[in-house]
Every structure is written in structure tokens, then in C-alpha cells.
Write a structure and sequence with these properties.
Layout (H helix, E strand, L loop, with lengths): L10 H10 L2 H23 L7 H29 L3 H8 L1 E7 L2 E4 H32 L1 H38 L3
Helix pairs in contact: 1-5, 2-6, 3-5, 3-6, 4-6, 5-6
Length: 180
């Protein structure tokens, strides 16, 4: 399948992530961030006025996303290179009715899928924030008109990244203490 959709291979892990997501996970990783973004827009940014300090918000989020990206890479590296009883156990343990291409996946595959999706989301967030900085520098009129929407999207994205990081960190914890 990777050769079929030239340069769109990154959508395969997104599809796999979405098909393996349970309702409670969806609420935590998508619903809660969306609620936070909407509340942020209507309660905080809607009444605010643009200032030069608002561009620093995007620049600081670039730093935070960069740190979270590094943490996710380190965690994924840990999962794929370490061999211990916990990793071997989750490679053998099948998930409860989570399937990809009609095949039940194991807990290890589910964890790798979630981390891969998180990495793609963080890259998207980095690109988005970088584009905010470029828009603010080269098209200040557009930035002054749309900055509230940009920041509401940004806050939602950051909330989603944090929610998925919480889930992934918890999963790694349970793998290594043997509770999975």
C-alpha cells in the first residue's frame, strides 16, 4: 500500500490510529481538547485585542512542541529498542477487539500506532506554529485579523498533544511495572 499513494503514506498511521480508538479515548484525546479550544476562543481570545506580545505565544508554543516531540521520539525509541519481560508480554497480548485490516492487533502494535500518530500530530503542530510566525512577520494585516482563531486552534492542538502524551506515558509506565 505505501507505493499506492505517493507521499501520502503518513495517512496510513492516522487511519490506523482512528480505527483503533475507543469512545472514551476519543472523548479524552479529541473531545476535551476541542472543548478547551472553544472555551479559550470564546472566554479569553474573543474579548482580547491584538498585541505584539501575542506572537511570543506562538514562539513559546514552538519550544514546548519541540520538547514534547523530543520526549515522544525518546519514548518510541525506548519501546522499539528495549527488550524486557514487559515488552515481550505486550507483544503477545492481543487487544480487546481493536483491528487493523480485519486483524486483531497486540498491545505493542497499539502503542506504536499511538506514538506514531502523536509524532505526526507534533510535526503538524510545529509546522502550524512556524507558519503562524511567518504569517505574523510577512502578512501582519492577516495576522491581526485572524490571530484569535489561530490561537484557539493552537490551544486545542496543544491540549490534544498533552492528552495523548498522558495516555502514552501511562501506557509505558504500565508496561515497565508489569501491570499491562
Amino acid at each position: 500500500m505505501p507505493g499506492k499513494w505517493l507521499y501520502l503514506e503518513f495517512l496510513i498511521p492516522v487511519k490506523d490510529y482512528m480505527t483503533t480508538l475507543k469512545f472514551r479515548e476519543f472523548n479524552f484525546e479529541w473531545g476535551l481538547p476541542l472543548l478547551i479550544a472553544v472555551l479559550t476562543y470564546f472566554l479569553i481570545f474573543r474579548t482580547g485585542t491584538y498585541s505584539d506580545d501575542s506572537i511570543q505565544f506562538a514562539e513559546s508554543l514552538l519550544n514546548v512542541l519541540g520538547i514534547l516531540f523530543g520526549f515522544s521520539i525518546a519514548s518510541l525509541t525506548l519501546l522499539t529498542t528495549v527488550t524486557n519481560d514487559g515488552i515481550e508480554r505486550i507483544k503477545k497480548a492481543l487487544t480487546d477487539n481493536r483491528k487493523i485490516n480485519k486483524k486483531t492487533i497486540n498491545v505493542y502494535q497499539l502503542t506504536i500506532i499511538t506514538f506514531t500518530f502523536l509524532l505526526l500530530l507534533e510535526v503538524f503542530g510545529l509546522l502550524l506554529n512556524f507558519s503562524y510566525v511567518l504569517i505574523a512577520l510577512f502578512h501582519p494585516a492577516l495576522w491581526e485579523e485572524k490571530w484569535k482563531l489561530f490561537y484557539a486552534l493552537d490551544v486545542g492542538l496543544m491540549a490534544q498533544v498533552i492528552a495523548i502524551n498522558i495516555r502514552n506515558t501511562s501506557n509505558i509506565y504500565f508496561v515497565f511495572i508489569g501491570q499491562f
